[in-house]
Design a protein that fits this description.
The chain is mainly alpha-helical. It is built from 10 helices and no strands. α1 (about 10-45) packs antiparallel against α2 (about 60-80), α1 (about 10-45) crosses α9 (about 225-260) and α3 (about 85-110) packs antiparallel against α9.
Length: about 280
Amino acid sequence: MAARNSEVSLCIKYLLFFFNVFFWLIGGVICFVGLWARVAYTQENTSLSLFSGWDLDPAIIFIFVGVIMFMLGFCGCIGALRENICLLKFFSICLSIIFFTQLAAGILGFVYRHKIKELVAENLEDTIIHYRTNPNLQNIIDYSQETFKCCGLNSYKDWRKNRYFNCSQIGPEACSVPYSCCRVDQLNTQCGYGINRDEMPHSKRASIIYTDGCIDGITKWFNRNLEIVGGVGVGVALLQVIGIAFASTLISDIRRQKAKWDQPRGLHTPLYPNDM
């Protein structure tokens, strides 16, 4: 029996396969990290269950992103290896939706950037209030304030909304800010104590802590690193477009191969040369 000639490009097939194996593994790792952080948080807070308090836990972002990457990587990997049109279609459609969603979000974010800053400030106000009640959230806020050299959302005064740092409280932390707001000596967790008092001169306060809010701080960071951010964005978009193009090409090759193999051989090609 003569071997059938394959219409499927092995180069595209295995490039798509290994491309998705990589993202499949990365998605699994991200999902594992998110679940580990979530379980650790619920173990420290026995009053919460694994499925409560998701709105204020940054671990949900890791779990969500990890699950999406894992599912897409799995569908693309198995779809390419097994030449499964359904899995490849699912992979291509989902990746297209993500790509166009990112594109639309980027355009809308640029056009309505001032309005978005106001919405972000309103929706993230609870993160200041619950700073001490969620270790995952606390780590994210501290990391952001240290990285972007900022304090609070709009300014350092936002920390007055937290019951532990409020000026009406009695104790060493009254009228304070977290240590991650400090310009120097961040190893000293008490460096921000009493810094939020109105009677303190602003020049002295500004020499100890960052006074600008993190919304402005992140905006300034993006403006300073616009070329790098733009390059990363273009790179991610290019990978998505290549994945969509490879999946679409592979689907066309598989369909063409199936159509060729399903042809009635007696009607199109002679079984033997002598039949011609």
